[in-house]
Amino acid sequence: MENNLLEYSLNDRAPLVNDFTKTKICDLSMRAAMGLEESYKASSIDFPKEEYASLRKLSEQELVSIIENAEEPFTRRFVAGQLLALLGDPRINVLNPEMIAIPSWTGLLGLKVSEVDEVVETYKNYGIIDEWIRKETPQYTATIQEFQIAKYPVTHQEYWEFLKDTDYAEIPTTWPLGQFLTSQSNHPVHTISSDACVQYAKWLSEKTGRKFRLPTEAEWEYVAGGSDGLEFPWGNTFEKDHCNTVESGIFRSTPIGIFPKGNSPFGCADMAGNVEEYVSDFYHAYDGGELIADDLTRERTTYRVARGGSFTRFRDLARCKRRHGRYMSEIYVMGFRLAEDID
User: Fold this and answer.
1) Where are the beta strands (DSSP E) in 252-300?
2) Residue 19: pLDDT over 70
3) Does residue 22 have a pLDDT over 70?
4) Is the separation of the CB atoms in 292 and 266 below 8 Å?
5) Is 107 within 8 Å of 227 (Cβ atoms)?
6) Are 150 and 338 spatial neighbours (Cβ–Cβ below 8 Å)?
7) What is the pLDDT of residues 189-211, one digit of tens each?
8) Fold category of 5-44+91-341 in CATH
9) Domains of the chain: which residue ranges?
10) pTM above the 0.90 mark?
């Protein structure tokens, strides 16, 4: 276990603490839970003037090429994504989102009961407790039918188009005074309810004549970790430059797909960070497992499961097997990606 999170920052701002063994994360303020000081700490990505100057005259496709090039420095990929937010990101096609075909598969998902203690020990500095990890057990056999899943989470631009077309009442709480921000058009939409995600999928299905929906838990986990059941979408070791979690030092959402090294075995982006993603399943115990009552069930009788990490959470939430959900706190930034049934 690394003892200094500073070495994991993608810029010169990073969490200052990484030991939550003596406190309970759910009881902390948002800044404290992210390991932040009360005073502001500047970052090299606050105003990367040189990168903006060097990239601002490039075409949209040239900017996409930078984003998709894992050898490009992070700041250039970040700036390329921010410029595309303003210019119009060609990767966003509201009525025809980029989907990845997933073949049918039968195999093992979830966590072995015998591995719970090891996982808790590995991530204990991040406030992990036994009951959270036991939700992932026992390992079970899943059968997944052929389907499609979106390469990227649904963005603010896509959700904006939905709101304009439907007059749906739920505006993301991250929109200042309820107003859409062009500067975040290609960031994942977040801080919305699971009902809003379901309504978006229903709307898009009606607009296109296709069968969009939220992915199931099993589908999401399989796409994220592949048939080998990886710990993270890219492998079994956390990597500082593969996803937007607290360790990155970004502390805000980022344009979709700017962490190409972190893509899943099937090529899906942002499955381990940026924003957490609702799935279709409400929490239940796996067959033969124990129904866990924790802070989430104490808030309500049931909740829709979320998967993947986010820019407000440490690496433990980025694990492919981790099951969680929305807690009534600013630190929970919930978004979604689409799945599609194939006739």
Assistant:
1) 276-282
2) no
3) no
4) no
5) yes
6) yes
7) 999 999 999 999 999 999 999 99
8) paralog of FGE (formylglycine-generating enzyme) (3.90.1580)
9) 5-44+91-341
10) yes
